Amino acid sequence: MKVLILAAGYGTRLAAIVKDTPKPLIPVNAHPLIDHIISRCKNISSLNEIVVVSNNKFFSNFQKWAQNHKDIKIRIVNDGTDTPEQRLGSVGDINFVWKLEKESDDWLVIGGDNLFEQNLQDFMNFALKKAPAITIGVYDTQDIKGATKFGVIALDSNKKVVSFEEKPAVPKSSLITMCLYYFPKATVGYLEEYSRESKALDAAGSYIQWLSVKKNVYGFQFNGKWYDIGSVESLNEAREHFR
Predict the structure, then answer these.
(1) Distance between CA 160 and CA 134 in Å, rounded?
(2) 99 pLDDT more than 80
(3) How far apart (Å, rounded) are the C-alpha atoms in residues 42 and 157?
(4) What three-state secondary structure class fits 16?
């Protein structure tokens, strides 16, 4: 299995404080944000490679960072974009990387601005039991109002996704999707089908919503702390509370 970390954003909402540092390399308690993700990935028994997709602007930053991790295979992929206007978006970058791969594989896709405590092996144990279906990470924010910024879902008794609303004005619950997805190799081809039906390659949530209607998707609920580092406020909160 391979892990794909999405790190090709430009961090425009954090530009005032990070300037020329890509968001995943922003320090959170003495370590780059992405290092916290890497530390969780190292617990996955079936992992054979971590792929980090960056843009051209920050490609060299990630290459330099990767040199600090000699104990695990990390490959940096450049999506070729230089500005926010050129960005491929989450689904676009997933599609870009998968088209580069010569052989099909199982993929765990993680947003490079996700900060979470729970062991990823727990997630994988659940996901492998549900394979060949897709499994996504979900989290209860305990904040109905705040859920308007995310994809809000509902699960049945078997943890299958039975409803998905992307950034609803009036959320039905505070259970939201994380940018964390397990795609067994049998499901990788679904992205081509989605691309033919939709032009929305920017937000991963739109793809997951489509999958939840067309295919079988299950949700694993994460415990502990979780942060989506998308603003100065969320970054400061993570730095204060995450250990």
Answers:
(1) 10
(2) yes
(3) 31
(4) helix
